[in-house]
Design goal:
This protein is an alpha+beta fold. The protein contains 13 helices and 22 strands. Helix 9 (403-417) runs parallel beside helix 11.
């Protein structure tokens, strides 16, 4: 067996002690690892733990293995594979990790090959080889006391899996599982559910995966007249309350699956959703003096090192502030995330991507850039979402003076997406008013066409969002090559866009590629001087968002970099 794993996840595993591996079996005896989660491998109720962890995974992916420093721990894991992490000492005394993989079948072990792949390569494989089905499921959830007196949630589908008929309106397909013709049943998902939409340049990313909205109806009974309604009474002193709800379920289906296999996968997705909601009882149950049931709402999040979104259930009647402890003690612990905002509702992933607040600004324009020439480089990007702000947007012609304002707006859009700012992205006038209010500029600065630089960006960012920044000074533009490793660490630990200003020009740095051996460095630069329409092909082709070498900046100009820093509140 060959184990495929992204370079990012491969590096992440080497910094951790033990946990579970999520993934999917591909053709040709390949197992693709799609993410990792922390859990106690010696848990007495291991199957229960796995069931709860799989509640975070969209249907189509499952727990496929474990990783730890001890090979003995795999005996009780019921996994397909185990990745053993052996500590080694390098010559300079630093910790190194040797990775050994075992395939487990019929209680026997066999060595298997681990292949660390380029991140975009495996992400492209998910986007190319799977179709993402979003099912609108009607359910009935009930709250009651079990024999131990605990309040629990039970969920069931209003339409049974056996009677379900699946309708995909965008493709005008109605699939009746028991009524598929031979010709139709042998067609594949890839043949039927592939639109003619254009993709962005470069490798296909997860943001371009085919998304199929699916509705579920009940197949009519063959002879309704033979059925009659009946009522069954179960006398009990225990409190019981029920509520009909609509929930969205997620299912990733291989493009090679037949339509018969597709309907079976969608049925399993419906069944699994009932289990997932029951596993979330501790979040959804109310106190015993209240009959109200919290409505479950699911949100998708794409985490570093993961190849597909993970799903998180939140009760609709609780705010983000009320869920702080759950995010910190459960989500950040299980997914081993740093204590920065990651699982707030406003940070949820939307597939397919939607325009930012109907403004039609491009979200994450760096996605799809070609990085094939950086195979031996360390590569890191801005973490999360942001919008591209540039000249002449919002009916403001700021050509020749507004580039730093636009860079600041891009940074604040990132802060807004990630829960650091509940205010709107400020206009040029509002930026000027903030600088006057904090005493940085005189009143005549308002409504002027005066430039601002990195220091002003730092001060507005703190006044508007509360985020602090640090400044790096450069004696010349090409000197930024010396900061390659530092910027690499910034994007890995802070993940925020970086503003660089010098002379009368400003740009936004949103990625870096650094060669550990030669020190060669290149940067993904988002250029606010672009003044055209929101056309990602033009923006990539003309270099308005693309890789730049250090000589891109003037050798006779001083520059300042403004690096926004994260608050550590989860």
């Amino acid at each position: 067996m060959k184990i495929l794993i992204s370079n990012s996840l491969y590096q992440i595993l080497q910094t951790r002690l033990s946990g579970f591996l999520a993934g999917v079996t591909l053709s040709n005896d390949e197992l693709l690892i799609t993410g990792s989660m922390k859990s106690d491998l010696n848990d007495q109720d291991l199957s229960g733990s796995i069931s709860k962890l799989e509640s975070f995974l969209p249907s189509g992916f499952q727990i496929v293995g474990t990783f730890s420093e001890k090979i003995a721990e795999l005996e009780s894991s019921n996994s397909k594979v185990h990745i053993q992490l052996e500590n080694e000492q390098e010559g300079d005394g630093d910790r190194a990790v040797k990775v050994i993989a075992w395939s487990i079948s019929n209680e026997t072990r066999a060595n298997c090959e681990v292949v660390a792949c380029d991140d975009l390569q495996v992400e492209q494989r998910i986007a190319r080889d799977f179709v993402y089905f979003k099912l609108q499921v009607k359910m009935l959830i009930s709250q009651f006391e079990d024999e131990a007196g605990s309040t629990v949630i039970e969920a069931r589908n209003e339409i049974s899996e056996q009677d379900a008929v699946f309708f995909m309106p965008a493709f005008r397909k109605l699939l009746k599982p028991n009524s598929l013709t031979k010709k139709l049943s042998n067609q594949t998902v890839g043949q039927v559910f592939t639109s003619n939409k254009e993709s962005t340049p470069g490798a296909k990313s997860l943001y371009e995966i085919e998304v199929v909205e699916t509705r579920i109806y009940a197949e009519p009974a063959p002879n309704p007249s033979i059925f009659a309604p009946y009522i069954k009474l179960n006398p009990t002193e225990k409190r019981l309350s029920s509520l009909p709800i609509d929930v969205t379920a997620s299912c990733f289906v291989p493009t090679t699956s037949t339509l018969t296999e597709l309907t079976e996968r969608l049925r399993c997705c419906m069944e699994r959703l009932c289990i997932d909601i029951s596993n979330s009882s501790h979040l959804l149950t109310s106190n015993k003096t209240d009959d109200h049931i919290a409505i479950p709402q699911y949100y998708d999040y794409l985490l570093p090192g993961w190849l597909h979104p993970i799903r998180v259930c939140y009760p609709a009647n609780k705010s983000d502030d009320q869920l702080y402890q759950y995010r910190k003690e459960v989500l950040h612990h299980v997914f081993m995330q740093a204590e920065v905002p990651t699982f707030r509702r406003n940070l949820a992933l939307v597939l397919p991507p939607q325009p930012e607040e109907s403004s039609n600004k491009i979200v994450c324009p760096h996605i799809g850039l070609d990085e094939s020439r950086f195979s031996r480089y360390q590569v890191a990007y801005v973490q999360g979402r942001y919008t591209y702000h540039h000249y002449k947007q919002d009916s403001i012609d700021d050509t020749g003076w507004g580039c730093a304002y636009r860079s600041l707006q891009t940074i604040i859009s990132w802060a807004k997406y990630h829960g650091y700012c509940n205010k709107s992205v400020p206009t040029h006038l509002e930026i000027q008013q903030i600088l006057v209010k904090i005493g940085d500029k005189p009143k005549r600065f308002i409504q002027s066409t005066s430039w601002i630089g990195s220091i002003e960006v730092q001060r507005v960012l703190e006044a508007h969002t509360g985020m602090e920044s640090r400044i790096i000074n450069l004696n010349s533009g090409p000197q930024i090559a010396e900061k390659g490793r530092e910027l690499l660490m910034h994007f890995r630990t802070e993940g925020t866009p970086v503003m660089i200003g010098g002379g009368v020009l400003a740009h936004t740095i949103i990625g870096v590629a650094f060669d550990e051996v030669t020190g060669a460095t290149e940067f993904v630069v988002l250029d606010p001087h672009y003044s055209g329409g929101e056309d990602i092909k033009v923006i990539h082709k003309k270099g308005w968002c693309n890789w730049k070498k250090p000589k891109f900046w003037d050798s006779n100009t001083f520059y300042n970099l403004c690096l926004p820093l994260l608050s550590r509140k989860a």
